[in-house]
Write a structure and sequence with these properties.
Elements lengths: L5 H7 L2 H8 L1 H7 L1 H10 L7 E5 L5 H10 L4 E6 L2 H14 L4 E5 L12 E7 L8 H8 L3 E12 L6 H10 L22 H10 L3 E15 L2 H10 L4 H5 L3 H17 L7 E13 L2
Parallel strand pairs: 1-2, 1-4, 2-3, 4-5
Antiparallel strand pairs: 5-7, 6-7
Helix pairs in contact: 2-6, 4-5, 8-12, 10-12
The structure holds S-adenosylmethionine (SAM).
S-adenosylmethionine binds next to α1 and β2.
Length: 282
């Protein structure tokens, strides 16, 4: 019998998870606006007890710890060992004492009952094998009036930051099959009908999905942006599996896209499109 979320556990502890940990600061610059949107949407403030799902290197959790002040606290969980290690180091460096990082599967971790006011997640909710079971699992950990806000990607066609490099390079690479509509993956919460179905089936109410469009800085220089595409974006796995002429042609094609999207300040920015989903706990 396969273990729940085992594919994602393996993936986020591979080279890919290591790259996300190594480039934690880059990731936080890319997605800073999303953290603000998520924390703003839940009106996270002094005294709140916050749970951050799929916290990665802890960028959002550290901001939340500041917002909730010393009378609140933050618990942040992720399945990636490299990223939780990085998050824990950042916590120590920042001398923050009201947050903890847990290495574990959010969908099964035994959270104490009534221990949170707010659940937040920046791009961490789309990777559950069984999201119905995960959202049912979170509910008892929320206290009366509990609420959630999470950022998830809209459809691939609305996200050139991910798809423009893919379109340019795909002829030279073997791209993996797209996950099915009920399978985990970055775009698995893009369909509002699916998100509404999952949340209502698990007793969450007042679901709202607000579009959030932003320009994503992929890197301060062309080199940084290319590094992101090679190591962390959707092309990292297909690129690592190819060598020789095809690899060179793929990288040239990606570089062309990045050059076209370099602003006057030298920063490479492409458009991103998310939903900010909010809901009330059962
Ligand atoms: C796209 S990354 C986002 C990381 C972080 N929230 C950020 O914005 O930088 C998705 C994260 O979800 C985590 N994740 C995936 N499935 C998970 C699960 N079942 N429990 C906890 N974390 C999970 C991954 O390890 C990864 O860190």
């Amino acid at each position: 019998m396969s273990v729940i979320n085992s594919g994602q556990i393996e993936f986020w502890n591979s080279e890919y998870g290591l790259a996300w940990a190594r480039y934690a600061d880059t990731v936080d610059v890319m997605f800073a606006e999303l953290s603000d949107a998520v924390l703003g949407a839940t009106v996270t403030g002094a005294g709140d007890r916050v749970l951050d799902l799929g916290c990665g290197n802890g960028g959002t959790a550290l901001l939340a710890a500041d917002r909730v002040t010393a009378i609140g606290n933050v618990t942040a969980i992720d399945i990636s060992g490299p990223m939780i290690d990085r998050a824990s180091d950042r916590l120590t460096e920042a001398d923050i004492v009201n947050a903890i990082f847990i290495l574990g599967d959010a969908a099964t971790y035994p959270f104490a009952e009534n221990s949170f006011d707010v659940i937040v997640s920046r791009l961490g909710c789309m990777f559950f094998d069984n999201p119905d079971s995960a959202f049912r699992h979170f509910s008892p950990s929320l206290d009366t009036g509990g609420r959630a806000a999470f950022a998830v990607w809209r459809a691939p066609r609305e996200n050139p930051w991910a798809m423009a490099p893919v379109s340019a390079a795909r002829d030279f690479l073997e791209m993996p099959a797209r996950p099915g509509p009920e399978e985990p993956g970055p775009f698995s919460f893009a369909d509002p009908d699916r998100v509404n179905r999952i949340l209502s089936a698990t007793g969450w109410t007042d679901t709202d999905m607000t579009p959030f469009d932003f320009r994503i800085p992929l890197g301060n220089t062309l080199e940084d942006a290319l590094n992101f595409c090679i190591k962390m974006g959707p092309l990292s796995a297909p690129l690592s599996a190819v060598s020789g002429t095809n690899r060179t042609k793929a990288i040239d094609a990606i570089t062309g896209v990045l050059e076209q999207n370099t602003d006057d300040d030298g920063i490479v920015r492409l458009d991103g499109a998310c939903w900010i989903v909010t809901a009330k706990a059962p």
